[in-house]
UniProtKB/TrEMBL annotation, chain A:
Pfam family membership, one: Mur_ligase_M
EC number: 6.3.5.13
All residue ranges annotated as the Lipid II isoglutaminyl synthase (glutamine-hydrolyzing) subunit MurT C-terminal domain in the record: 334-448
Organism expressing this protein natively: Heliomicrobium undosum
Protein name (Swiss-Prot/TrEMBL): Lipid II isoglutaminyl synthase (glutamine-hydrolyzing) subunit MurT
Assembly information from the UniProt record: Forms a heterodimer with GatD.
GO BP annotations listed: cell wall organization; peptidoglycan biosynthetic process; regulation of cell shape
PANTHER family reported in the protein's UniProt record: LIPID II ISOGLUTAMINYL SYNTHASE (GLUTAMINE-HYDROLYZING) SUBUNIT MURT (PTHR23135:SF7), MUR LIGASE FAMILY MEMBER (PTHR23135)
Catalysis performed (reactions): beta-D-GlcNAc-(1->4)-Mur2Ac(oyl-L-Ala-gamma-D-Glu-L-Lys-D-Ala-D-Ala)-di-trans,octa-cis-undecaprenyl diphosphate + L-glutamine + ATP + H2O = beta-D-GlcNAc-(1->4)-Mur2Ac(oyl-L-Ala-D-isoglutaminyl-L-Lys-D-Ala-D-Ala)-di-trans,octa-cis-undecaprenyl diphosphate + L-glutamate + ADP + phosphate + H(+); beta-D-GlcNAc-(1->4)-Mur2Ac(oyl-L-Ala-gamma-D-Glu-L-Lys-D-Ala-D-Ala)-di-trans,octa-cis-undecaprenyl diphosphate + ATP = beta-D-GlcNAc-(1->4)-Mur2Ac(oyl-L-Ala-gamma-D-O-P-Glu-L-Lys-D-Ala-D-Ala)-di-trans,octa-cis-undecaprenyl diphosphate + ADP; beta-D-GlcNAc-(1->4)-Mur2Ac(oyl-L-Ala-gamma-D-O-P-Glu-L-Lys-D-Ala-D-Ala)-di-trans,octa-cis-undecaprenyl diphosphate + NH4(+) = beta-D-GlcNAc-(1->4)-Mur2Ac(oyl-L-Ala-D-isoglutaminyl-L-Lys-D-Ala-D-Ala)-di-trans,octa-cis-undecaprenyl diphosphate + phosphate + H(+)
UniProtKB/TrEMBL annotation, chain B:
Gene: gatD
GO BP terms: cell wall organization; cobalamin biosynthetic process; peptidoglycan biosynthetic process; regulation of cell shape
Pathway: Cell wall biogenesis; peptidoglycan biosynthesis
Protein name: Lipid II isoglutaminyl synthase (glutamine-hydrolyzing) subunit GatD
Record field: catalytic activity: L-glutamine + H2O = L-glutamate + NH4(+); beta-D-GlcNAc-(1->4)-Mur2Ac(oyl-L-Ala-gamma-D-Glu-L-Lys-D-Ala-D-Ala)-di-trans,octa-cis-undecaprenyl diphosphate + L-glutamine + ATP + H2O = beta-D-GlcNAc-(1->4)-Mur2Ac(oyl-L-Ala-D-isoglutaminyl-L-Lys-D-Ala-D-Ala)-di-trans,octa-cis-undecaprenyl diphosphate + L-glutamate + ADP + phosphate + H(+)
Family: Belongs to the CobB/CobQ family. GatD subfamily.
């Protein structure tokens, strides 16, 4: 319950704004939260303090939304109630809006747990307002450098935010990312590491998308025995002794099954169990592992954790399969930074057979204005499947830049076509796709929203659009 | 069928593991492809911390930008080992492209917020002062020295403000039409000194500005073989992407 009139005024203003937004069909999710906060700055703190079993916070560059949705599924499978910024609005306004929506008209939050996905730059403020039981840090990669400045600043920001955590709280860190694990080395509170032990995927060689091969603590080169992707792998610093911490929550016996997903074994102090994940992509194993570590910290039982992962359905635009007629297939996969894009390309090249490709690049504020990252992404990896690619097209505000990138990645200039209008480009690509062919649509964030509308207008709604 | 050109070139990529922000490896990809399409063999040598290298063997050098932390890691190595030899070679006409942090390191000094001066290599008669805000956004500029009506487009993201002196005929690489350039004041963007170029343009700069890529290749060929001629390429997507950015942002 909220007793102060100011808090109630903030809450009701926020609730009214949410209702109005719905009425006018506006998708914006952060405005009601911002409004509530302007009236009652302590609103989020007051609401979050009522969570019966506290909150779990998820941050990092890639995998925040997927990890928090997986965790939400596990919590639902435990028959616990939940407040969650499900729509992925992960700045403070959007998070406050999720709590406003979850609260009763009298200002009480009935939920057992909170799951909060947080943008890296927002985490210091969030940790101060919501004193979480744990913070999961997934990984650090360059993303929207035009907004954040340098990656080092982002890592330092998260490190400083963790120092503000209450003593009983736990930092849940990816052991395989040296940028993340370096935070644990200096963190004075409790740390729980997760990581992948199995070396059947990945390589001995570093890929282009690695952010650093230098130790964040002493500046000397790191020695690697194994790379999974980017700078994630098994590493040690010969100079200062910093090395990959031995993770408590681990994954072994990985089996990648192309677009069908993957299977793997989780090894934890609580036991070992086999997981079947229907979401394709090696990186989703990391997301499942991060969600599992958070769930174990929240003392969720193993059957709920398994059920949550098994029941997890692909997140909006994260390698989503569209149902088409005549045996034609289409996948929609968000690309927004080099590492995420490389993983999507890896999944695409693993699936054999005739295919078509449509890449849609926008440079709106939510995408990042700077599209230089297209050149950090490894589109050269398409080379082995070029003979299988029946058509290659681009669209969006930066579709010409994308065409240029593909040309320099080895695609002949006249094999690429460009259509500025996204809905026309999608309609044309679907039209061309014949039975037995797979169409891959790779949009940036705002292009994904436009693609969704265009697909719905064409009568091709994917199975799992929730929001 | 691409004819084999006998004029092989050697490109040195300096500190590729430290200076690798903002897609700058796209500049290497561009130089490689534009040589490959013309049958010119281009070897890329990656030279980093503790590597010894004689710049006399190089035909072309590329240096990108890095984060403050990574620039600190290479600072001493560059000052003591590679920097002086690189400056000597560039003074003798070695073509060089430096972007952002690399450009700043090759100036006379960088003055931090606290007034501390970090010495640079002094190849460019230029100095940089830390600014309180970052200059971020698309840039459209005119670069007449690359040919009549030739422009440059790119994306800048820097807090340092760079000012040019007048030693040795150093001049701005381009005049800003939209965006900030070197310092947001004098409309200058980047620097040209002999065959060395400094710029704040990411994007990366070379793919959408093939005239600049070819200028560097022509200088390298001329210097090594006395013949800087280049077979023209169709440059369809290069021109399309360039013009699209110029149209969209020049009017702002």
């Amino acid at each position: 319950m909220l007793y102060s009139p100011r808090m109630l005024a903030g809450l009701w203003a926020g609730k009214t704004a949410i209702w109005l937004n719905r009425r006018i069909g506006h998708g914006g999710t952060s405005f009601p939260g911002g409004l509530g906060r302007r009236i009652a700055p302590g609103l989020l703190s007051a609401l979050a303090a009522q969570l019966k079993q506290g909150a779990m916070v998820i941050t990092g560059t890639n995998g925040k939304t997927t990890t928090s949705k997986m965790l939400a599924e596990m919590i639902a499978a435990s028959k616990l109630t939940l407040t969650h910024n499900r729509a992925g609005a992960n700045l403070v306004g959007g998070i406050t809006a999720a709590f406003i929506e979850s609260a009763s008209i009298g200002g009480s939050i009935g939920s057992d747990l909170g799951v909060i996905e947080v943008d890296e730059a927002t985490i210091p403020q969030l940790v101060r307002e919501v004193r979480p039981r744990g913070v999961v840090v997934t990984n650090f990669f360059r993303d929207q450098l035009d907004r954040f400045g340098e990656l080092d600043k982002t890592v330092t920001l998260v490190e400083e935010a963790l120092a503000l955590l209450p003593p009983q709280s736990v930092a849940i860190l990816n052991a395989d990312d040296p940028l993340v694990a370096s935070i644990g080395r200096r963190y004075r509170g409790r740390v729980l590491y997760f990581g992948i032990d199995d070396r059947s995927y990945g390589s001995r060689e570093m890929t282009q998308s690695a952010e650093t091969r230098f130790c964040r603590l002493c500046g000397h080169p790191l020695a690697y025995d194994w790379f999974f992707f980017g700078q994630l792998g098994h590493y040690r610093c010969v100079h200062c002794g910093f090395e990959r911490p031995q993770p408590k929550i681990r994954v072994s016996a990985i089996e990648l099954k192309g677009e069908e997903g993957s299977a793997f074994t989780v090894n934890a102090p609580q036991g070992n169990w086999r997981v079947e994940l229907s979401t394709p992509g090696f990186y989703n194993i990391y997301n499942a592992l991060a969600a599992t570590a958070a769930a174990l910290r929240l003392d969720l039982p193993e059957p709920s954790i398994r059920a949550g992962l098994q029941g997890y359905r692909t997140n909006f635009g994260r390698m989503e399969r569209l149902e088409l007629d005549d045996g034609r297939r289409a996948f929609l996969a968000l690309i927004k930074n080099p590492t995420g894009c490389d993983e999507v390309l890896r999944t695409l090249t693993q699936n054999r057979g005739p295919k078509r490709l449509l890449v849609i690049i926008n440079d709106n504020a939510a995408d990042g204005r700077d599209i230089s990252w297209l050149w950090d992404a490894d589109f050269e990896a398409l080379a082995p499947v070029l003979p299988e690619l029946r058509s290659i097209s681009t669209s969006g505000l930066r579709g010409e830049d994308m065409a240029l990138r593909l040309h320099y990645a080895g695609v002949p200039a006249d094999a690429i076509s460009y259509e500025p209008d996204i809905s026309h480009a999608i309609a044309a690509a679907l039209e061309m796709t014949s039975p037995e062919e797979t169409l891959y649509i790779l949009p940036t964030y705002t292009a994904l929203l436009e693609s969704k509308t265009a697909l719905a207008n064409l009568g091709h709604s994917p199975r799992y659009w929730e929001e | 069928m691409v004819q084999t050109d006998l004029r092989a070139l050697r490109l040195v990529h300096l500190y590729p593991d430290l200076l690798n922000l903002y897609g700058d490896r796209g500049n290497i990809i561009t130089l490689l492809r534009r040589c490959e399409w013309r049958g010119i063999p281009l070897a890329v040598e990656r030279v980093s911390l503790n590597d010894r290298f004689a710049f006399a063997d190089a035909d072309l050098v590329f240096m990108g930008g890095g984060s403050d932390r990574e620039q600190t890691l290479l600072f001493r190595d560059f000052q003591q080992h590679k920097g002086p030899a690189l400056v000597e070679a560039a003074e003798a006409g070695l073509p060089l492209l430096s972007v952002c942090g690399g450009y700043q390191l090759l100036g006379r000094y960088y003055r931090t917020h606290t007034g501390e001066e970090m010495p640079g290599l002094g190849l460019f008669d230029a100095w940089t002062e830390a600014g309180s805000t970052r200059l971020i956004g698309n840039v459209v500029a005119e670069a007449p020295f690359l040919g009549e009506g030739v422009g440059l487009v790119g994306f800048e993201n820097h807090s340092g403000r760079t000012f040019l002196g007048d030693r040795g005929g150093i001049r701005p690489l381009a005049q800003v039409v939209a965006g900030h350039g070197n310092n947001g004041k004098d409309k200058g963007e980047g620097a040209v000194y002999k065959n060395a170029i400094g710029t704040y343009l990411h994007g990366p700069v070379l793919p959408k500005n093939p005239a600049l890529a070819d200028w560097l290749l022509a200088r390298a060929l001329e210097r090594r073989y006395g013949d800087g001629s280049l077979t023209p390429l169709a440059d369809h997507w290069e021109r399309t992407a360039h013009d699209s950015v110029a149209r969209r942002f020049a009017s702002r």
